Amino acid sequence: MMPVQAPTTPQATWSRSAERIMAAINRDPLTAPHALRNDALLAVSVAAVSAALALLVDDGRRPDALGWALLLVSHVPLVWRRRRPVLVLVTVIACVFPYHFLDYPHTAATQAAYVALYTVAVTGRALRTLLVGLGVIALSVGVMLTISAHEALGLLKASGWVVAVLFLGVDVRFYRRYVTSIVERAERAERTREEEARRRVAEERLRIARDLHDLLAHSITLIGVQTSVAAHVLSADPERLDREAVAKALDDIAETCRGARGELRTTLEVLREHGPPEARGPLPGLDGLPDLAEAARLAGARVEQTVRIRQAPPAVGAAAYRIVQEALTNAVRHAGPEPAVHVELDERQGALHLSVRDDGTGPAPGGTPGFGLVGMRERARSVGGTLDAGPRTGGGFVVTAVLPLNTTGERNG
To answer: In what helix (H) or strand (E) does residue 383 lie, and over which residues does it extend?
Structure first.
């Protein structure tokens, strides 16, 4: 079945024609497509108008073969008017002067000169246009003086058309530059918006990756330790099974799974929402540190906390929470059995000073490095802070961070 086309109305036809005309006006003549073909058609059209004027206007003697040759040849250079506008103007003038000197119809020979003058004005600088215009008027009047003072005076009076053509070309040139600058600004703004969107997407992906790493590493480590405790209780003395210890270990595992599931749901909701990151719910903060310490104690660590700061900006509190979470996870995983861990947070000189140190053995040498330390450093940098981590002098591992409390950084979870 053939598609039914909507009828073309005169208004739609006029609108399309107007759009094409404006596109031709706005287009740079030096880079326009099909320039040579279009200029050849223009030269033929202008030559036809000049020939009609030579037959209809009686301001000189009727052209003979030489007059027709000079008149038509003066239009040929217009084919290359965009490439060499000044040279084309000089060539047109060289053909037109003998035509005027022989007193052929003068009006007929002005069309090609006007087109050449307009091209010079629309493609060149204003100073060049002014000098060319003055030179053409002076040379034309000088040539006409050799014919007749009356003709020279009439040409001088008609020089207003030359000035008008030059001003038209200059105005069109400035208009095109104005349109080009608007288009460039719009394109630059669009590129900036796209780059900003890509940057925000990359930052959000990095934030989600950090959240998932912190959450999964912490929860899986605790679940692994608690499962080992339950397995040890079951296999240590099957004859005298400590049901309370097994039940407590399983309850701890269930509680850890519930907490991890809740945080994981909160994190994954960001991927389903189309609103801003600020609408994704409350951030973890300093009030969640006791729960982290209790979870690490259930995993076998001996955790002591010293918190001498009551509140912090949401972004700083979330960064501190995640850094402590990752540091405790690393201590439970790498510091050996029942490590002593001391967590300290206090406020000094407008910044939150954080320290997590343990007395364990540290990670085994030659192991595959993970993303924990990288993530903690990124957390600190996201709020304008710094973080250092490494082995302690007397044994163990220490993580220290300084997080400014007046930060205006992004929200992190």
So the answer is: none
DSSP assignments along 334-368, one per residue: HS-SS-EEEEEEEEETTEEEEEEEE-S--SPTTPP
Q: What is the reported pTM? A: 0.44
DSSP-assigned letters across all residues of 228-296: HHHHHHHHH-GGG--HHHHHHHHHHHHHHHHHHHHHHHHHHHHHH--S-GGGS-PPP-GGGHHHHHHHH
Instruction: Let me know how long the chain is.
Output: 413
pLDDT tens, residue by residue, 117-142: 888 888 877 777 777 777 777 776 66
Q: Residue 8, Cα to own-chain centre: how many angstroms?
A: 40
CB-based burial of residue 405 (10 Å sphere; 0-12 exposed, 13-18 middle, 19+ buried)?
Answer: middle
How many C-beta atoms surround the C-beta of residue 393 within 10 A?
Answer: 6
User: 87-117: string of b/e by CB count within 10 Å (b at 16+)?
Assistant: ebbebbbebbbebbeeebbbebbbbbbbbbb
